[in-house]
Queue: 2 jobs
Job 1
Amino acid sequence: MKKLHWYIIRSFLGPFFMTFFIVVFVLLMQFLWKYVDDLVGKGLDMKLLGEMMFYATFGLLPYAFPLAMLLASIMTFGSLGEDYELLAMKSSGISLFRIMKPLMVIAVIITFTAFYFSNYILPHTNLRFTTLLWSVKQQRPELVLQKGVFTNEIDGFSIRVGNKDKKTNMLYDLLIYDHRGNQANESVTVADSGYLSITEDKKFMVLNLFQGVNYQETGGPVRRGNETYPFRRDNFEEQTIRAKVSGFDFNRRDENIFRNTFRMLKIDQLRYMEDSLGIDYYNRLRNYMLQIRFNSPVIQRMNNYTVLHDSLKRDIDIQPDSLFNFDEFFNAQEKWVKAEIAQAALAEARNNVQTLNMYDDELYNRKKHLNKYTMERHRKFTLSLAVLIFFFIGAPLGAIIRKGGLGMPVVISILLFIAYYIVSMTGEKSAREDIWDMFTGMWFSTLIFLPVGIWLTYKAATDAALMSSETYRKIFDKLGIEKAGNFLKSKLKRT
């Protein structure tokens, strides 16, 4: 390999790895903001949080590869253009395509790496991350007592705190209702102060109380009409209540619960699930449609539309042996006969509408669920190919703007990636809702940005002055002159 190629590769790898880790960090911060309510206040140890961040980082890499490629390409070629190195290479007879050739190879390698990662590694990390996140969400939060509010987080107890010292965690003016005997407020404890803590294994609550009174109704059931009840009151200087609690310890869920979710499957597994869910969907659709009451030819046509194989279609070429004039028959009937016919038709129509409304939501949800598997299969290709597309956008764009560093390239990269994300989400939503064909919706962003990359590469190779204001001024001036000439010609023709 030539020294020039090694120089181009070294100039690219530094910005790529730097921007890659920056993008991963920014996306990880977005993840934390999204799930901060599920993580805070549950007493998770650092090892568990580190494991979750590790799996979340892997889930963000498919979006980090394209953005890092775009930003690194703009920075590399922008720096070469800003330092006139790109100009020196072109003046030596080296075309832009030859300059880009070593980075094209790297872009292809990163594209295949992104696809391999998305298809073989990401499903396993998504499974572990989803299972871990679900386990964290199901865990009960740490017990936090707020002053003036009853807390029922501890099973069998209802606790109210009058005041709380944040520095010493001392609780004051405690009122505790003991419901462990499934009785209504028959055991009440009032204490001047105390401490509340959960053991390290999070299986027991320890409540140390000071200077208080226990009030308790004792004895068995009383006879009807007797308005007096046995009562007991105990004063104490110090008392410890130890109760078993559940739900505060962390329990990792079984991964098999989410194993067949669309984000946890490879391409061959996604195809298998698509076939299984598709057959089930069309069988249900056929059964629901055949439950609607129509005449025989319409039912046979609906059967032909809903069968999966052409060999199961029926011959519906029905030739009537006679024609029946319904209007003539209906007008010849008496009023009460007409009313009965109209009521029967209206009742039949209402039954059909009720049947359609009954199954519409179920079929809609099942089709959306099926579309998720198809979308995930396409997404593995589109996100991987986006790496190569963004290279052909970023490299010529950097050669055109001739600005390196983290200033202008970052702004342009963010704007382009936001535009790509918006177009991609628009296509995915249209495909998910069956507004567009699945291929058109999932590849919509690729079909738009790939021609843009080809056009930018062509303009950069021909040294087109796209960033020069003079270019656009000449275009506007030319358009203005042509419009004025057309306007004069139209006036002359009228005169």
Job 2
Amino acid sequence: MKKITELTFNNTYRKLPEEFYHIVNPKPFENPFLISLNPQMASEIDLDAAGIDEEELAEYLSGKKLIPGSKPIALYYTGHQFGVYNPHIGDGRAILLGEVVNSKNKKWDLHLKGAGPTNYSRGFDGRAVLRSTIREYLCSEAMHYLGIPTTRALSIVGSDEKVERETTETGAMLIRMAKSHVRFGSFEGFFFRGQTKNIRILADYVLANLYPQYADNPNGYRLMVNEIAKRTGGLIAKWQVFGFTHGVMNTDNMSILGDTIDYGPYAFMETYKSDFTPNHSDHFGRYSYKSQPSIGYWNLNKLLQCLSSLLSADEIQEALGEYREAYAESYLGLMAKKFGFDWFKDGDKKFIDDTLELLEEKGIDFPIFFRELSGVTFDASVEGTEVKKIGKNWIDKYIERIKSDNSDEKKRKKSMDLVNPKYVLRTYIAENAIRQAIDNQDYSEIEKVRKILMRPFDEQQEHEQYSFKPPEGAEVKALSCSS
């Protein structure tokens, strides 16, 4: 393990032409202090989290001191936001400190959010607030332990600096870790400028660094985009299965690796609503829960258009087909596991669709219903309150269906409990951690929640209350993009 001053960097993106980024140093807080350090992610970059000098570490993790070997840059990208192309995006409140290579030769970007203004800030302050950093820190970890591909978070650094958003809030910084921060939108600016040379340079970079298994293949571009399509389809299928709604599926928020990136006004589904959107700016429901699969397809199509100088029309259609197939296969496969089906039979898709309609009609809690479902037995024993709400007619049909598999009840329950989490990051749970941090400068709830979410499928009796529905008045509500 290493001190933070001893990390190994290989800043590959900095080696690209100057059109790809802007060289800039973070604007540090005057008095930064460490709020949380994720020991799992510290170990990923060989950082020794034991016996650290927290004051010095906070200075490095907030950019007040530059980590030796890091070469900070703000990344250039554009994108379609709510369906409209915006040429003025880029890293406006985040800076890529550098790319750390660990002892296993695995690379991690260290991306500092809230690091101050860059050339892409459009006159804004470039800051993040404590509220949003806590939400991203907790959710990216929750997603990882659910098995959903995601960026992760290394640290939160706090300050006494005031930041103006909807109200005056406290500034904070978060280090996001990702295998890469290349996005669909990274290609769009060059495409709309007609810079096909830079498109090829970026495609070759992605091929060599992120999809090296295809780098020496004469069909490398085709194989790469097919893989991107499959990963994106599989990712969004998992969002749907676990009830996660991103809230801002702009093309600049789509990772070229098929990872979840940019946690803003996200939410996990509580009471099932197919048109649920957690973003109060999404007045027409473009990024609603039910729309996410089609938006993923739309976004992928925009990426493929940017690569049309490298791909044939048939190859573009092939990749879009790979997305559809990957989404359908992953979604239906995972839903079968959620319902406890050993395999798909005729009529199962309709049964699943009809079940979701009933959940919506009867106002049933999505995560609790599926967690309780494993407790339904062949002899029609039903204990779960949310399952009972769906009605005897449905329960009888469900029992008939699971009996037809001739599966062992104990094995079925065990396998269902491994895909239906008991603990998800409900909005009120994150809000409780936020309120304790802001109102009382008590950051212990952040770490407590993070540890609970590391074991989402386990029966953690000592933390049972974290699996409950929200208290009255604390149901998930639409949030702002500054979240």
